[in-house]
Amino acid sequence: MSKKMQITLTVNGEAQDLLAEPRELLIHVLRERLNITGPHIGCETSHCGACTVTMDGKSVKSCTVFVAQANGASITTIEGISTPDSLHVLQNAFREHHGLQCGFCTPGMITRAIQLLEDNPNPTEEEVRFGMAGNLCRCTGYQNIVKSVLAAATEMSAAREAAE
Amino acid sequence: MIPAAFDYHRPDSLQDALGLLQTHGEDARVMAGGHSLIPMMKLRMAEVPHLIDLQAITGLRGITIDGATLRLGAMVTQHEIIEHAGLSCAAPILREAALQIADPQVRYMGTIGGNVANGDPGNDMPGLMQCLGAEFTLVGPDGTRSVAARAFYEAAYMTARTDDEILTAISFPATTGGYAYEKQKRKIGDYATAAAAVLLTRKGGTCASASIAMTNLSDVPVWSEAAAQALVGTACDDTAIKAAMAAMDADIDPGEDNRGPVAFKRHVAGVILSRAISRAWSRT
Ligand SMILES: Cc1cc2nc3c(=O)[nH]c(=O)nc-3n(C[C@H](O)[C@H](O)[C@H](O)COP(=O)(O)OP(=O)(O)OC[C@H]3O[C@@H](n4cnc5c(N)ncnc54)[C@H](O)[C@@H]3O)c2cc1C
Ligand code: FES
Ligand code: FES
To answer: Nearest CB to B105: which of A45, A49, A71?
Structure first.
């Protein structure tokens, strides 16, 4: 065992202080210490994207980030994007367009899609496919995931225009 | 998938990082984005008792375009390369290649410095750096030196960088003429079965100069002068492309692995090079 270090994270807007070994992976800290179990472990080898969270404005695979590396960062998980009474536009779009079946990949998909639309608010279908390429789904065949993201993009742009 | 224990360091200056490398010697290693190193540590193929995270060293960041010379700090991420408008103008091949590396999540974290310093034959940037004629700036206890990308790679994971040096920047001339980065992979996010970087200039109807490099077809990136020479003075027609393919084939040395047997890799390398030349020529 190595020395533990003091870690400070802002997770879904809340400050979290904990002692952890630097080698602990961010996904394990989120799930096992902070009980934030939205981000899933699909492969643990940087391939599936089920563990995707937003870290300081970047979509990252939290199975490939040491908690020490994340020290000081602001993290958003699926739990932080909405409340059960008022779903995020993307969550509603996934529901409307059947963007999920078993739901295992969905927290990673939606978290990634939020950052994608942040970086590129009006993507083409090709840009959605390319921008979601780090997230694997074993069920849907992706068609409806792409539809959901495009529908959410349209709705979010319309809302932005209405607000202006 | 838990790596062996380590002490974590996050120095905020290059001097401090170099000092830590001196103090801990072979037990220390720097980390950039961690997207090659962390998987290796999780598999326990790399053990790093002292991990030196470079993320807080602001001097290693930034892209500067000074006339015809481009300079990228080692910690510039693949995502930043893709988003940088000036870079896409001055050397569009870099963006074309970066877009074919891994997936969005990996590109937010993975850096150009980590990609070229790693020494993995599967990495895409080392081949591209041969093609561009890039120079790598290394800083160590004895000061700063510059090493040509074409002289940097010695064998798989073996480079001209000594253990006490840090790669700080990469520089190369802005490109003119046509370009293409072409890559064959089994699925999105995969390393190359074969990849080709091609730069061409045209004078009238013929090719005035060419630079060609291949990725993952030997234990080091392959800069094929002979393949480039086969194009110069031609109209990059079928005969010239076939000659370039044959010259390249003599320079590569692929091994059999889960991406296929040697004959298949040689075949794919030829197809990829031929596509890259045609696309680059169409852009001159
Ligand atoms: C799923 C997946 C798919 C991938 N696909 C591709 C692909 O298709 N093509 C491709 O090219 N790459 C691919 N990669 C690798 C990715 O691009 C890495 O990010 C990159 O190879 C290394 O960059 P890094 O910043 O993450 O470096 P790190 O992992 O932090 O470091 C890599 C090595 O370089 C050394 N190092 C890093 N920075 C410096 C420095 N400044 N000075 C001296 N030494 C340094 C480290 O000590 C380490 O040995 C993939 C990775 C994953 C996880
Ligand atoms: S669990 Fe992190 S990418 Fe699959
Ligand atoms: S809905 Fe089952 S993995 Fe995507």
So the answer is: A49
What band does A164 get if pLDDT is binned at 50, 70 and 90? confident
Closest C-alpha to A26, from B94, A56, B199, A3: A56
Please name the fold of domain B61-172: 3.30.465
For range A81-95, the mean pLDDT:
96
Rounded to whole angstroms, the Cα distance separating B189 from B265 reads 19
Please indicate whether, in this complex, the C-beta atoms of B31 and A69 are within 8 angstroms of each other: yes
What CATH homologous superfamily does B179-282 map to?
Answer: CO dehydrogenase flavoprotein, C-terminal domain (3.30.390.50)
Question: Which neighbouring-strand residues pair with B51?
Answer: B8, B29
Phi-psi region of A13 (alpha: psi -120 to 50; beta: other; left: phi over 0): left
Chain A nearest-CA residue for B1? A44
Angstroms from A61 CA to nearest CA on chain B: 6
Q: Where are the domain boundaries for CATH 3.30.43.10 in chain B?
A: 7-53
* B156 Cα distance to chain centroid: 13
The set of residues, in sequence order, having a beta carbon less than 8 Å from that of B91 and lying 6+ positions away, is B70, B132, B172, B174, B175
Tell me the C-alpha distance between B181 and B258, whole Å. Answer: 23
CATH superfamily to which A89-163 belongs? [2Fe-2S]-binding domain (1.10.150.120)
The H-assigned helical ranges of A4-142 are 26-28, 67-70, 89-96, 106-119, 125-131
Distance, in Å, from the CA atom of A89 to the CA atom of B240, rounded to the nearest integer, reads: 55
ipTM: 0.96
Question: Would the pTM count as exceeding 0.95?
Answer: yes
- What whole-number distance in Å separates Cα of residue B260 and Cα of residue A87? 47
Fold of B7-53: 3.30.43
Per-residue tokens: B258: 């889960």
Mean pLDDT value across residues B7-20: 98
- A131 in reach of chain B (CB within 8 A): yes
Contacts of A65 in chain B (CB under 8 A): 34, 38, 109
Integer Cα distance of B65 and B227 in angstroms: 30
Task: Determine the Cα–Cα distance for residues A158 and B35; give it in Å rounded to an integer.
Answer: 37
CATH number of the domain located at residue range(s) A5-80 in this protein: 3.10.20.30
Q: Which of B6, B31, B108 sits opposite A60 (nearest CB)?
A: B108
